[in-house]
Amino acid sequence: MFRFIFIRFLQTIPVLFIIAVLTFAMSRAAPGGPFSQERRVSPVIIERMNEYYGLADPLPVQFGNYIKNLLRGDLGPSYRHEGRTVNEIVGGSFPVSLELGMWSLLIALGLGIPVGLLAAVYRNTLLDYVPMSGAMMGICLPTFVMGPLLALVFGLWIGWFNVSGWHTPADRVLPSLTLGLYFGAYVARLTRGGMLEVLSQDYIRTARAKGVPEFMIVYKHALKGGLLPVVAFLGPALAALISGSFVVETIFQIPGLGRHFVNAAFNRDYTMVMGTVLFYATLLIVMNMIVDILQVLLNPRLKYES
Amino acid sequence: MPLLEVNDLTTWFHMRDGIVRAVDGVSFTLDRGETLGIVGESGSGKSVSCYSLLDLIPKPPGRIERGTAVLGGEVDLLRAPREVLRRIRGKRIAMVFQDPMTSLNPYLRISTQMIEPLLIHEGLGNREALRRAIESLEEVGIHDAVRQIDLYPHQFSGGMRQRVMIAMALITHPEILIADEPTTALDVTVQAQILELIKARQRELGTAVIYVTHDLGVIAGVCDRVNVMYAGTIMESGTVDEIFYNSAHPYTQALQQSIPSLHDKGKSLYTIPGAPPDLTEERSGCPFAPRCAYEEAHCTGPNYRGLDAFRGRHKTACLRVLEGELNLKEENR
Ligand SMILES: Nc1ncnc2c1ncn2[C@@H]1O[C@H](COP(=O)(O)OP(=O)(O)OP(=O)(O)O)[C@@H](O)[C@H]1O
Ligand SMILES: [Mg+2]
């Protein structure tokens, strides 16, 4: 088990390096620089600023310096947020994204798993058809439709919540719902599929033949195997929940990392782009690793092979 | 009074492209402690008739259309409320399935699965149940059961798993054990061991066993009486001797001729001519008639009466044998 984790950890290093190279190359390939703006700035000033930040050096030297700082955990200064480092910005805005992600995850699992279970147990009845059509709609509705819709109904018309912002606890509700319902729809479908698969297995028939009560069959004999697809989905989903929330963050004006990332890309804020990409990549790798470990723990057949 | 009395059991599958008449009017009895074999070609409805007794067929598409199955003269299994039937499953009637590789839950330890019937049906505590489970594993010849019981199914070989299945089925000392091809998935040496094991446990516990198989050799070795099934109905029913040496149905004979035997080496294998029956077709008269060497017009006519007494408890569905037109013993001389 520890060997497995250690090997997975070693594998991440080259992956992160390649991501760093690619991001660096692509951000530099985009026309313009961090200091080009609509307002004309005198070329002398731009030159001085480039020199100050080391942007006049040849690219390989710049990259080398970047990596050197990176190894010390320093993501560099932001070129657009004066006097603030990328570390500070990520550190300040990531907890917001994380909180949003966690609430959404809670909604997605808390709603998706029971709905999927019910649909599987009562397959081909109304308890299956109605929630599953809802889930299909949830998947088809992109968050940039769902978000404004929720804001319109519950913010403007009914007036229960603020339309945007991230100040009071109530402000968490609409954005978390927007993201959570979307992922919950996936979770519901995966749960249903996984449970149906397991419930048709021979060993479920064995359990029935033993006189195991129906709810114990679902809970004790089927659930572990039935939830494996959900667990496998959790890794990418978690990463997507935390990193991919920039649409929702933009809709609801939430000061999360996603918005900073999008703005940084538009502004050619090189260090900020590099920093967020590497941060997200690490996050994704860690999440997937956790999910792999979780799967091994759930499935005894894997446990003894690794 | 027989322990189990099945009458006119009829189970159909309602598929999109027609009704599959998997079991069509099956009647038989089972006495205490006796061993009944059910034999027949693949698809003849052996498994479905057994699963119907415990309501284990998938519904839909399956449906039990008619019939009764009275256990101990008191409960009709086919009409019992779910809760009543659940208390019978695993307690009074237990099952062992064909494929031991897929019939145990891969996510649960052997111990968890073994003690379940005791927790459910006998209200034992965990500790006492575990003790009994270890005991019954030892009784089916699993060494070091104290340690083995904590393993997962995938850590066992096929033969070992089938031993576990048998131990688990017998742990509550059921009155009836239904074994659906318990040895088909195992290699020959293990097959013999498993059969021997079931026989031994049966003697000790006085369990009645229903053996489902398409292997006539198994039947001859372990059964008291045999039902020969074809196309969802019983063609012939009798003691092993009656079935093997005094067969009263052409299908039973054809089935026997298609066993590869050792002395006929070199001779080409006999196969029953014609195609297996189409169960979606509604039929009148004998279902075996189209493939039967002795078929006559009235076999499929209105006089066909299905399984009927031939001599005492020896029953056959062959109209010509019943009418005394056909003497299979003479024919084969
Ligand atoms: N779940 C199901 N849905 C539809 N048809 C089924 C189902 N289960 C069984 N059948 C049909 O019922 C018929 C009898 O099947 P059954 O499993 O009882 O055969 P069997 O005699 O046990 O054969 P085998 O020796 O192959 O196990 C077959 O024609 C099969 O196609
Ligand atoms: Mg079968």
Q: What do you see in this structure?
A:
Chain A is an all-alpha fold. Chain A has a domain at 94-304: Orthogonal Bundle (MetI-like fold), CATH 1.10.3720.10. Helices cover 75% and strands 0% of the residues of chain A. Chain A contains 14 helices and no strands. In chain A, helix 1 (2-29) packs antiparallel against helix 13 (270-298), helix 4 packs antiparallel against helix 5 (126-140) and helix 7 (173-199) packs antiparallel against helix 10. The radius of gyration of chain A is 24 Å and the shape is flat. Chain A starts with a helix and ends with a helix. The mean pLDDT of chain A is 85. Chain B has twelve helices and twelve strands. In chain B, helix 3 (110-121) packs parallel to helix 6, helix 4 (126-139) crosses helix 6 (158-170) and helix 6 (158-170) runs parallel beside helix 7 (188-205). Chain B has helices spanning 46-53, 82-88, 110-121, 126-139, 145-148, 158-170, 188-205, 216-222, 240-245, 250-257, 319-322, 328-331, and strands spanning 4-15, 18-30, 35-40, 62-71, 75-76, 93-96, 176-180, 208-213, 225-230, 233-239, 308-311, 314-316. The longest helix of chain B is centred in the middle third of the chain and has 18 residues, at 188-205. The mean pLDDT of chain B is 88. Chain B has 333 residues and is of the alpha/beta class. Chain B is globular, with a radius of gyration of 21 Å. Chain B is 32% helix and 23% strand. The interface between A and B is medium-sized, with 23 and 30 residues. The structure holds adenosine-5'-triphosphate and magnesium ion. Residues 46-47, 180 of chain B line the site of magnesium ion (MG).
